[in-house]
Structures are given as structure tokens and as C-alpha cells.
Amino acid sequence: MNKLPVYILKRYLLLLAGLSIMAFGVAFSIKANLGTSPISSVPYVVSLFTPLTVGTATIMMHIVFILLQILILRKDYHLIQLMQLPVAILFGYLTDFAVYTVQGICYDTYWQQWGICLIGILLVAIGVSLEVKAGVVVLAGEGVVLAICKVLPKIKFGYMKVGFDVTLVVIACILSFVFTGRLQGVREGTVAAALLVGLIAKQFGKLLGKWKIEK
To answer: Cβ distance 68 to 147 under 8 Å?
Structure first.
């Protein structure tokens, strides 16, 4: 009986660590100015033409994702999934904190930008791995993909995730052109993140697989 609270605490602490690392990954990708990861592209662009911070825009986007899950799943939507809301709020505030923290980082060359960008990609991948390992709740973005896969079981999660990410990038591009007059938030770093985050997260996940949280 005494092991249950400790077991749950470990999972939530692991989730918190994952969200924190992921938030700093987002902050580094923004700082590099080579384009953010697909999931962060829309909040970043929205922050450019509204009073919203990246973190606040992220929270708003996740609320939209939660509503989409409710509309898609309807009776099959479980109230426990509303845990995505406090997680989204926490992640939003962590993102703003991380963005503020990395403000002092400077660079002079394109290759230094890439160095910062790759750090961001690595941190996002590690954060995703820890989030998955925690097994507490998925972020609302993954929740939407899982919801669509549930009503369209013939479509594999991997393909749907790629389609979802591409859709977010397209939306970010449209918003950027319409409201700022030029392309912002989507560049070569966005492509690199789309290609590398999943691969790195998979490899890091294998290492985490050797660690048993129950102990």
C-alpha cells in the first residue's frame, strides 16, 4: 500500500522533468531563429502579431486541441483526458520561463545558430521521451492524433502524426504571411526538428526502457 503514492509521485515528477526539458527545447529553437518545431510553430507565429506570449498561445492552442478531441470522440471521450488542460497550462508557463531564461544567449554566425537549434531539438526529443516514459497523460497535440486514429483505425499513428505536423506548419505559414507579411517561425530548423526529434526520442526511449519506475 505504501508503494502506490511513491510510484505515482515518480511518474508525475518524471512528467514535470519532461515538460521542463521540452520547454527549454522550444526556447532554444526560438532563440536560434531557424524555425521552431512543428508543434510550436503556430504559437510562435501567433505571438508575433498578438499580445500573447509563446507560452500563452501554446495554452490556447492546446485548449483548441482538447475541444477537438471532445468533438471527434464524443461519447468515447473520457473525462480523465481533461488532465491535458493543467498539463498544457503548466507547459505554457514553463515555456515562457524558458524563453525568458535563454534571452541572454548570443550568436554571430549561421553555424552558431545551428548549434543552438540542435540543442533545442535534442532537448525536445529528451522531453518527449520522459513524457512517454511517465505514462501519466499525453499532451493535447498527441491526444488529437490518437483521437483521429481511434475513429479512423485504418490510419497508422505515425502517418497521422506526420500529417498533423504538416498541417500545423502550413497553418503557421499562412498566419505568418497574412499577419506579418513574410515567412516567420518556419525555416530549415523546422524541417530538421520534424526529421530528428522522433528519431532521437526513439533512441533515448530505449535507454529509458531499462529503468523501472516501479522500483
So the answer is: yes
Residue identified by cell 554571430 is: 108
Q: How many CA atoms lie within 13 A of 123 on its CB side?
A: 23
Q: DSSP assignment, residue 137?
A: -
Is the whole model's pTM more than 0.70, yes or no? yes
Distance of alpha carbon 155 from the chain centroid:
22
Q: How many CB atoms lie within 10 A of CB 163?
A: 13
For residue 99, give the amino acid letter: V
Closest listed residue to residue 193, CA positions, set 64, 31, 41:
41
HSE of 179, CA atoms in CB hemisphere, 13 A = 16
CB 19 within 8 A of CB 127: yes
Look at residues 144, 169, 171 and name the one whose alpha carbon lies nearest to residue 38: 169
**DSSP label at 174?**
H
Closest Cα to residue 58, out of 34, 25, 80? 25
CA 22 to chain centre: 7
Three cell numbers, residue 79: 473525462
Query: Angle between the 84-101 and 54-73 helix axes, to the nearest 10 degrees?
Result: 160
* Residues of the chain scoring pLDDT < 50: 1
Taking the C-alpha atoms of residue 207 and residue 209, their distance in angstroms, rounded to an integer, is: 5
Rounded Cα gap, residues 10 and 94, in angstroms: 20
